Amino acid sequence: MDLQQAQSLEQFKGQPRLPKFAVPKRYDLTLKPDLSDCTFSGTVLIDLSIVHATNFIVLNALELAIREVSFTNSQNRKYSPSDVVVDGDDEILVLVFDEALSVGDGVLGISFSGILNQHMKGLYRCTYMDGGVKKNMAVTQFEAVDARRCFPCWDEPALKATFKITVDVPSELTALSNMPVIHEKLNGHLKTVYFEESPMMSTYLVAVVVGLFDHIEDTTADGIKVRIYCPVGKTDKGKFALNVAVKALDLYKKYFSMPYALPKLDMVAVPEFSAGAMENYGLITCRETELLHDDLHSAAANKQRLVIVVTHEVAHQWFGNLVTMEWWTHLWLNEGFATWISYLATDCLFPEWKIWTQFLEVTTGGLRMDALEKSHPIEVEVHHARSIDEVFDAISYEKGSSVIRMLQDYLCDDIFQRSLSSYMKKYACKNAKTEDLWSVLSEESGVQVNALMDTWTKQKGYPVLSVKSEDYILEFEQSQFLSSGLSGDGHWIVPITLCLGSYDKRKNFLLETKHDRLDLYELSCSSDGNSSLFEEKNQEKFDEHLWVKINIGQTGFYRVKYDERLTARLRKAIEDNCLSAMDKFGILDDTYALCEAGEVPLSSLLSLMHVYGKELDYIVLSRLIDICYDVAKISSDAIPNSVNDMKQFFINLLLFSTERLGWEAMSGESHLSALLREAVLKALATFGHDKTHEEAMKRFQTYLSDRNTSLLPVDSRRAAYIVVMRNTSTVNRNVFETLLNVYREADAVQEKTRLLRSMASCPDPNIVLEVLNFMLSDEVRDQDIVYVLPGISLEGRETAWRWFKENWDLILNKYGASLLLTRFIRDIITLFCSHEKADEIEEFFTSRLSPAFAMTFTQSIEQVRIKARWVENIRQEESLQELVKGLACSG
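Structure tokens predicted for Aminopeptidase (891 residues):
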């Protein structure tokens, strides 16, 4: 390469997107995986349009050996590149031609080879058991930017093309891809499988799976064949997912007024998978836990999670696959909408689950992440391919889906559905940006949606509304909410909903300025027009009893801080059972967030929590329990002498519900009761409730001798496993060894997962160290670290951090710069709550930061510092320890 060429190549380095000299239209891809040697080879013929005369063709390739390259133009003239440059840093393949390629069509042919990696991205290998023998299978995971690890391509979502795929595989195995098989040709021990050509789609949605499976199938009302591929002999465990998938396809066809675009939909349970599931067009891949339902081993939470995952991935066949984001900046159009509509679909299929109340947990996840200074806008700039994975976070999913729900609530369901149908029709088989959706919604609704929503998607953060009551006037002030307690400078157009003393007296309006006032006179008038609430004789009654709730049903993505008078009235309304579960959740959640930010003292939060002692609604108790966990952890650093009293107070809060639920399911009980039993027993086990510990150990011993005993049903097992681990120590490790044997003997993935979630909860740091080393062993699949790490006990955090530092190189090599690596960073770092530890961790990572986890790291450090400030605030509260002691004695 001469100096001039080298300088010309520099123009392609460090660019987030490929140059547009050439645009792909069609890929004819042949893959030949060798499952014994864990390698693959292939050829790809790419139909191109050269749109500008050029001496360069630039496309993506990573970790591929390029064998042969040629370009043939429409006059059948063949060009061979004078240089082939593979740039691993920028993940590009640059083909240099001495003679410029002229504008027009042609075919680029490339032969290549690569390694079936173990990092669960690109074309990778994973293992399964066949008759007691461990064997390899091949799976693809291309989202976000890993199609380039499998074949050279224009690996950007906007560069859609059709795909004709052929694979050579061992004859006894099943080969699957996006489209149905046209033909199979046997050749000794191998077979060549030819698939139909796909419609236009993005590279990240291309998929191939090669392995040994059984399957079951059904057909939708309009003839779409749906199959669930399961491990051999386990097709019965795919029936529930099949039923959900078929119903979801029919439901979305009606909702979007648009049929499913492919002739078939396969869903495959894959034994090793880094995410939960992936929406590849026509070939959805999932973790086994997310697709297989086992009546004996699937808890209510497993069943619900399966429905959410299946409806989410099926929704992507429209939102994401048919209409695709133009660039990763608009990822939320895929993930936010699929998350939101998965709850809509689940509510249609299982209305008794009241799933929209549980959507509040999604909103809370978004609110927590977006209260960080190191958050990012929904529409986020992406400057490096490896940083894209980090955008698959609580902002794209949880905040994205929450602002969609807020907008749906503001516009009303009918207009929203009609708009989405129009959007699907307009952009089918194309790419879209956020503003394209706003344009369609504005057209259908007559509302300037872009002006409203730009404040929510183009800037990070959200507001807290400070609300004061003065002479029947409500005063509103919005400011950016930050968990650090610092002030931000964001400004939003906020859809406000409120009610006054009753859900019959409601008002909706837009808060467009920093300050606003609302006269309650009109809202307080009774239905016959009389303003009896404001008559002189009723003034005292109004002051005492008339509560105001802002953000009805928590449909808005913001927090509310009430003045003391309004707060007192709301507390009375909770005591009198005047509020819905969603509003009780919201008041509790906002108060917790304000407490963490230093806006409300911990004593006020604890006093509010005390009001929830007779609560029985799942979503409210679930949030209460999570807050108990967080307060117990922060208290161990802030007021260690009061931790036992604090835990006793939390136990008192939960005894009312646990007495009604017991350990075993009651005949005909609801899905929500089963969810609540698991959550309450697990909390009592964690807080050290003596009676729960005694009962758990007794039932666990019965379970050891009879795995089918009714004394330890599936929804109670997690609590029992936590009790086992909380009673394990270096000198009393027999029960731990027993639990490990239960894990080794378990066949059901749900049971293995449940055990892994509990193992690191031991208070003995030496046992936690054993569990962490066990997690890295061959006995635990790489994908399953996501279950172990969030369970690390507070007592084990120093050990976990030391272990993480000592094993950094091993972990980086084993898991690569992947989603799994971010879980190590987040789950271990955020256990701490001191500035000193944050400094120490930052120093360790000074020379180790990578774009693949930089955002996760900075957010994790920020969370540590937020908790450090919270500890300082708590230590300054007067009479707090006396309050805690009093609450502990009030049970």
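The longest strand covers residues 22-34.
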